[in-house]
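Backbone Fold Data
Goal — C-alpha cells
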Amino acid sequence: MPRKSAGRRFAADLSHALSSLFRLTAAPAPRWPIGLRAAIAIAVPIAAMTLAGRADLGFQAATGAFVALYGTHLPVIERARVVPFLAAGLLAAAVLGAVAGPFPIATIAGLAVVPIVAAAAMFAFSVGPPGPLFVVLVYGLSAHIIGSGADAATYVTAVGCGILFASAVSLAPLLLPSRRRVRARPLREVLPGPALSAGARMLLARVALVTLAGIGIGLLLDPDRAYWIVGAAVAVVGVAADRRAAYARGVHRMIGTVLGAALYLLLAPLPIPALWLALLLGVLQFTIELVVVRNYALALVFITPLVLLLTGAATGAVDTVAVATERVVDTLAGAALGALSGVLHAREE
C-alpha cells in the first residue's frame, strides 16, 4: 500500500509539473522596469566597447550584468543596501574562476566549494531569487574564458567594470526623489540572519548533493563542462523548499533548454555584427525578465541562447552544433539531478 501511495504521489507531482508547462502565472508586479534595467546592464557594455574597438572586453564585461537581477523584489532604497554585497560576491566568483581557470584540478576544486558557500550565504541571509545560480555561473564562465586563453587581469577588470555598471543601473531609480523618500528597513531586516531554517538547511543539503554529483558526471563527460551541469542543477533547486516545485523546475528546465538550444542554432550561424548582437542580447534579457515569473520553461527558451551567445562571443567558440548539443546534454543531466534531489523534501499532504 505505501508503495502504491508513493507511486500515486509521484504521478500527481509529475502531472502537475507537466501541466504547469502550459500555464502563465500572473506576475506579482509590473516586470518591464526590471527587464529594461537588465537589458541596459548587458547591452550597453558590449555596445560601448565595440565602438571603442574592443568588443571582446564588452562581452566579458557583460558577464557582470547578472548583479542587476538581484534584489528586484525590494524597494530601490533597500536594494541599495543589498547590491554591494551581491556585487562583491559575483566579483569574488569571477576572481576565483580567473585564478583557477588555467588549472583543471583547481577549477574542479573551486566548483566543489563555490556553489555550497554561495548557497549557504544566500539562504542564511534570505537573499531570495535568483539565489546562488549566477555566482556559480560567473565562476564557471570565468574559469572557462580564462582557460580558453583570455588574460586574467584584463578579464577581471572588465567584469568588475561590468558589475559596477550593472549595480549603477540597478540603483538608477534612486535618481527619483519619490524613491528616496521611501522609508528603508534596517539592513538586519532586509537581510535577516545569519540563520538557516529547516527548509533552508534542506535546500543547502540539496545544493551540496547536486554539486558533488554534478561534478562527478562532468568528470565522466568532460571536466570543462562540469560547471554547466552544476549550474543547471542549482537552478532547479532554486530558493523554494518544496518537492513539487523541484519537479516542476526540473521539467521546465529540460524542455525550455531544448527549445532554447534550437533557437540558438537558428541565431548562432548568422553573421551578426557586435552592435546588433548587443541589441539582440538586450532584447533576450528584457524578454526573460518579463516571463521568468510567469513560466520558467518559456524563460529558458530565451535564457539558453543568451548565455550561449554571450559565452561564445567571449571565448570565440564557433562550433554551434557541438556547443548546443553539449549544453542540452549537460542541462538534462543537471536538471534531472536538481529535480531528483527534491525527494529529500517531505511531501505536503
Observations:
- The radius of gyration is 19 Å.
- DSSP finds 15 helices and no strands in the chain.
